[in-house]
Write a structure and sequence with these properties.
10 strands; about 220 residues; two-stranded antiparallel sheet; 9 helices; 8-stranded mixed sheet; alpha/beta
C-alpha cells in the first residue's frame, strides 16, 4: 500500500523552512508511495494548556488532541505541492500510487477504531506505530527536530546512538511512554532529523542514513 509512513513531528511547525521541507516531501512522493501522519504541534499544546486549566478528563483531552493532528494535517496539505489530504486510507493509497503525497487527517479513523488508551502517555508517536502495524506499512520514519537519540559522553560531547530500543527512546523523552508497546517488531523504525530532507531521501533509497534505528522491543 505504502512504502513508508512519515510521522511529522510537531516541532517542525516552528522550523523556518517548513515550506521547503514540504516541497521536498512532495518531490520524494513522486518516487516512493508515502503516507504522512502529522503530530499535534502547537495545536496539541493548546489542548494541554486547556486540560491543565479545566481538568477536561482523559477522553475529552484525547479527542481534542487527535483533532489537533487534523489541524496540522490541513496545514501540511496547504504547504505540500500536489498533496492529497484525506480521512480514508484507501483513497490516499490511490493518490500515492499516482505520485502524490498522501496526508492523513486521522480523527475519523481513530474514532472508528479507538485502538489506544485515552491518556497523555499516548501521543502521535504511538499512533504512528499503531498505524504502521495496522496497515502493514513496514517502514516508519519519525521526523523530528533532532538528529536522533544522542547520549552525553564523559568529555561532555554528544554521540549519536545508531541503534536503540523503543524503551530507550521513550526513556529519553523523544517519544511517548506508550511507544514501546505500540511499535510492532515487524516495523522497521527510524528517528531522523526532519530538517534534513536529504537524510530521508537516503533512507528511502538505501535503507540507511544518519539517525537512530529503533530495533526490537
Amino acid at each position: 500500500m505504502f512504502d513508508a509512513l512519515l510521522k511529522i513531528g510537531g516541532s517542525l511547525v516552528r522550523h523556518a523552512e517548513l515550506r521547503q521541507l514540504a516541497a521536498a516531501w512532495s518531490e520524494l512522493a513522486q518516487t516512493y508511495r508515502l503516507l504522512i501522519l502529522p503530530g499535534g504541534g502547537p495545536f496539541a499544546d493548546a489542548v494541554r494548556a486547556a486540560d491543565e486549566r479545566f481538568q477536561l478528563g482523559d477522553s475529552a483531552a484525547h479527542w481534542m488532541a487527535i483533532l489537533a493532528m487534523d489541524q496540522y494535517a490541513h496545514l501540511l496539505a496547504a504547504l505540500c505541492p500536489r498533496a492529497v489530504l484525506g480521512h480514508e486510507l484507501e483513497s490516499l493509497a490511490s493518490a500515492s500510487a499516482e505520485g502524490r503525497l498522501s496526508i492523513l487527517a486521522p480523527s475519523r479513523l481513530l474514532q472508528h477504531r479507538d485502538p489506544l488508551p485515552h491518556r497523555w502517555e499516548v501521543t502521535s508517536d504511538s499512533i504512528a506505530a499503531w498505524l504502521a502495524a495496522e496497515t502493514g506499512i513496514q517502514r516508519l520514519v519519525l521526523l523530528k527536530s533532532v538528529p536522533g537519540l544522542s547520549i552525553l559522553e564523559g568529555d561532555n560531547t554528544e554521540r549519536l546512538v545508531k541503534n536503540t530500543s523503543p524503551h530507550a527512546l521513550a526513556e529519553s523523552g523523544l517519544v511517548d511512554a506508550y511507544f514501546a508497546r505500540a511499535l510492532s517488531p515487524a516495523t522497521t523504525c527510524w528517528l531522523i532529523d526532519g530538517r534534513r530532507p536529504e537524510r530521508l531521501s537516503q533512507l528511502l533509497a538505501e535503507g540507511q542514513t544518519i539517525g537512530s534505528q529503533v530495533c526490537g522491543q
